[in-house]
Write a sequence for this structure.
């Protein structure tokens, strides 16, 4: 007590002296002295303790994803009014906790989701009993996304096996146009009659769709590396069988889960996230077809860097730039190479290994010409021998007709001479060397 009394007495005398001094100063000097004293006190006093935060310690890994685009033309615009949309996806990796990402990035009006849920699909639009989990957003049952924005759900516990069919249900209480969507889902989705069926095991189905509106990602807490496939319709799986999961990325995902080499690897194994968009280009967007999405250069940050756990990038894009090249607006090999170099630089800045894939043959396609074939050959020669990508996948060699290398092998051709069919996509998925993804063995090789 003696020490405390002494300190208080000293403090009182100092305060009296300080007040007397202040009275003798001009107003300007008085303000300066007070400000200096307050700053010194702020620096000297210990900081207030930080408010405890709830940190999510899960190591998130992208297990499924798609790339949003739009809006579609008025004639093809889907609208929902007081309905539940149930979307089916197949994650390439399992886990015990999940979360989803929604998007209103192409919308011009707010998107309101009144309720959302996730569960395992039994068959059709029905859920496996006991697997439904209500989703929240910042602790709330619903969420409103402003135009141009995405939203990430809160995590929920769900025991999810790799390659299981998952249903994401979104209740849309008002009139909601699907201005942000992935147009080539190649997967049947379900739209209910009026009402909130988000947590219902059985859905009262009004119609089906083959698009993914608003949903762009599903993450799991597996803690492994994600392989992002950035591309156009050939990565999107155009002309493969609907509901068959026959894209080349699906084939790769199954190999990573089931082959002897992958089974021998230490978990967690890599997942595969498909960010292909039909009609997409490397260098510029197609203003006449907004469903073709923004260019790969423009959407790179959203579709690659924002993918949870992205550690590998496979780039298969450029054939639409070549095919749509014209005398009035020509695309050169130098233009495409400059675009690839930008992707390489941006991937390496994020310590993502980037793998270049050669462009497939397209003789016989609607936009083919001899000059454009020469441009494709020049680009492929640079990809193979330029030694600028961290590795190369030779999809051209895997799919071409040996007797006529400018064409797809007939057994692999879907019929339009541009897109593979199911067998062609299988050949592509089988042509990917699994050793490129060394995280499958628990070792990550940093980019060069």
């Amino acid at each position: 007590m003696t020490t405390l009394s002494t300190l208080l007495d000293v403090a009182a005398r100092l305060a009296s002296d300080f007040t007397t001094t202040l009275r003798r100063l001009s107003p300007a000097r008085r303000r300066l002295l007070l400000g200096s004293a307050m700053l010194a006190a702020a620096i000297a006093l210990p900081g207030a303790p930080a408010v405890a935060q709830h940190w999510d310690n899960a190591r998130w890994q992208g297990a499924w994803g798609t790339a949003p685009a739009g809006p579609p033309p008025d004639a093809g615009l889907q609208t929902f009014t007081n309905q539940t949309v149930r979307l089916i996806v197949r994650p390439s990796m399992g886990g015990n906790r999940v979360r989803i990402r929604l998007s209103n990035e192409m919308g011009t009006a707010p998107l309101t989701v009144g309720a959302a849920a996730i569960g395992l699909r039994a068959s059709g639009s029905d859920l496996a009993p006991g697997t439904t989990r209500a989703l929240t957003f910042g602790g709330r049952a619903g969420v409103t996304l402003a135009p141009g924005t995405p939203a990430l759900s809160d995590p929920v516990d769900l025991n999810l096996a790799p390659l299981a069919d998952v249903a994401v249900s979104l209740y849309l209480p008002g009139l909601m146009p699907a201005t942000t969507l992935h147009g080539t889902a190649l997967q049947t989705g379900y739209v209910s009659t009026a009402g909130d069926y988000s947590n219902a095991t059985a859905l009262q189905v009004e119609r089906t769709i083959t698009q993914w509106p608003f949903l762009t990602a599903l993450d799991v807490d597996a803690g492994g590396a994600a392989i992002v496939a950035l591309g156009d319709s050939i990565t999107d799986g155009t002309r493969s069988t609907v509901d068959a999961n026959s894209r080349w990325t699906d084939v790769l995902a199954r190999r990573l889960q089931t082959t002897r080499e992958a089974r021998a690897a230490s978990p967690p194994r890599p997942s595969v996230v498909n960010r292909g968009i039909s009609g997409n280009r490397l260098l510029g967007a197609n203003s006449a077809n907004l469903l073709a999405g923004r260019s790969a250069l423009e959407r790179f940050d959203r579709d690659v860097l924002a993918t949870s756990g992205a550690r590998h990038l496979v780039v298969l894009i450029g054939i639409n730039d070549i095919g749509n090249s014209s005398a009035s607006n020509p695309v050169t090999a130098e233009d495409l190479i400059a675009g690839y170099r930008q992707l390489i630089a941006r991937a390496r800045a994020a310590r993502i290994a980037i793998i270049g894939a050669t462009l497939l043959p397209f003789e016989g396609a609607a936009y083919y010409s001899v000059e454009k074939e020469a441009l494709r050959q020049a680009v492929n020669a640079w990809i193979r021998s330029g030694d600028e990508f961290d590795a190369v996948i030779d999809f051209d060699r895997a799919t071409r007709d040996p007797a006529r290398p400018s064409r797809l092998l007939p057994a692999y051709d879907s019929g339009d001479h541009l897109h593979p069919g199911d067998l062609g996509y299988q050949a592509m998925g089988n042509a990917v060397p699994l050793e490129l993804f060394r995280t499958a063995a628990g070792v990550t090789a940093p980019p060069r």
Q: What stands out?
A: The chain has two domains: 66-217, 223-441.
